[in-house]
Design goal:
- The chain is α/β, with parallel strands linked by helices and 337 residues long.
- Helices cover 30% and strands 23% of the residues.
- It has 2 domains: 2-126 and 319-332, 3-Layer(aba) Sandwich (Rossmann fold); 130-313, 2-Layer Sandwich (Dihydrodipicolinate Reductase, domain 2), CATH 3.30.360.10.
- The chain has helices at 11-22, 73-84, 128-141, 162-178, 209-222, 255-264, 282-285, 316-332, and strands at 2-6, 29-34, 42-45, 48-54, 66-69, 89-92, 122-124, 146-155, 227-234, 241-249, 268-270, 291-298, 305-312.
- A 7-stranded mixed beta sheet has the order 3-4-2-1-5-6-7, sandwiched between helices. Strands 9-8-10-13-12-11 form a 6-stranded mixed beta sheet, with helices on one face.
- Helix 1 (11-22) packs across helix 8 and helix 3 packs parallel to helix 5.
- The longest helix is centred in the middle third of the chain and has 17 residues, at 162-178.
- The protein is globular, with a radius of gyration of 20 Å.
- It binds NADP nicotinamide-adenine-dinucleotide phosphate.
Length: 337
């Protein structure tokens, strides 16, 4: 088994290295790719050094079995044919192919079998905020069909990549040292001491692309007609996204039923003792695999609705971990070239 990571120097790429090592992913060799910026840089994996190769249109993917790509949509679009031409499975973290009918969009806890039908050799890893929400909502969907979702997200700086994390840290440093923020490059506004109610570009209906991803991808992953209305907000946590989620089910569900289902759900940890100040927070979920959920309660405005709070490390379950779990599933069922 020969594995490639495209975008190895990035926030997600670096997490791939950690997760593949931690999980002892069954592989014999590793090849790292990047642009001119990181080509030649060396990273250590399981005690051995690997040098980043320049991603080019050549035969470098001839012997690759699985390619984890996290180098942005443009790079995925440009290099998909080069990556898949000799049969490598491309598990792509960008939004480039997610809604294409011939590309499966997979969360292993929910629809792993979809990964087996991939005419183009590409499997898309869903949007990070969406992955964490559906991992939590899927066990509830099994109790009663979810018709509507309202969600407000609290997304960390790292969702915009390694440079964005550094920019937030730089902004706090400038506030302390200079009394004002000078560096605003990656985000459209100052993020330190602020929240920004826009993630990704605005679309014609005044929802952002991130919000429309939540609408469309939730339906594709869950094979559902659910309608999701989202407001996605950038906050100044560094790592781990949070979400406040209201959901309407076909029949009324009790809080106890929901807590019970969440307590048994794979990939979910219930942390729900609000009377004792116990609920999930991003500082605690950072670096962990599960999505943490709490504040489960009845919606006061609608008898068929309940509401909950969740938080999870979007670079792990929202990106690298989900992709590695897809690859583990393919290996388990013997479905790699
Ligand atoms: N951060 C998250 O929480 C998150 C979650 C889910 C999905 N994603 C998606 O994952 C992808 C990567 O995100 P990130 O946060 O890791 O971004 P990042 O930290 O900015 O890293 C981007 C990576 O892409 C590489 N790259 C860019 N252009 C390239 C090219 N032409 N050829 C080869 N490599 C190229 C960069 O390599 P160089 O350093 O060599 O330029 C770098 O390794 C994006 O599509 C993003 O939407 C991110």
């Amino acid at each position: 088994m020969k594995v490639a990571i495209v975008g190895a120097s990035g926030a997600v790429g670096q997490e791939f290295l950690r997760i593949l090592a931690e999980r002892n992913f069954p592989m014999d060799d590793l090849v790292l790719f990047g642009s001119k910026r990181s080509a030649g840089r060396k990273y250590t994996f399981k005690g051995k050094e690997y040098e980043v190769k320049l991603l080019q249109h050549n035969d470098d993917f001839k012997d690759i079995d699985i390619a984890f790509t996290s180098a942005g949509g443009g790079t995925s679009a440009e290099f998909a044919d080069t990556i898949t031409k000799y049969g490598a499975v491309m598990i792509d973290n960008s939004s480039q192919f997610r809604m294409d009918a011939d590309v499966p969009l997979v969360v292993p806890e929910i629809n792993p079998e979809d990964a087996l039908n991939r005419p183009r050799g590409i499997i898309a890893n869903p949007n990070c905020t969406t992955i964490m929400m559906v991992v939590v909502l899927n066990p509830i969907e099994k109790l009663s069909h979810i018709k509507k979702i309202h969600i407000s997200s609290y997304q960390s700086a790292s969702g915009a990549g390694a440079v964005a994390m550094a920019e937030l840290q730089q902004q706090y440093k400038e506030m302390v040292e200079l009394g004002e923020v000078k560096t605003i490059e990656k985000f459209p506004h100052q993020l330190a001491y602020n929240v920004i109610p826009q993630i990704d570009k605005m679309t014609e209906n005044d929802y952002t692309k991130e919000e429309m991803k939540m609408f469309n991808e939730t339906r594709k992953i869950m094979h559902s007609d659910v309608r999701t209305s989202a407001t996605c907000v950038r906050v100044s946590s560094l790592r781990s996204h949070s979400e406040s989620v209201w959901f309407e089910t076909e029949k009324p569900l009790s809080v106890e039923e929901i807590r019970d289902a969440l307590g048994k759900a794979p990939g979910v940890t219930l942390v729900d003792d609000p009377q004792n100040y116990i609920y999930p927070m991003p500082l605690e979920s950072a670096g962990k695999d599960d999505v943490f959920v709490g504040r489960v309660r009845k919606d006061l405005a609608d008898d068929n609705s309940n509401t909950l709070w969740l938080t999870g490390d979007q670079i792990r379950k929202g990106a690298a971990l989900n992709a590695v779990q897809i690859a583990e599933y393919l290996i388990k069922v013997g479905n790699v070239k």
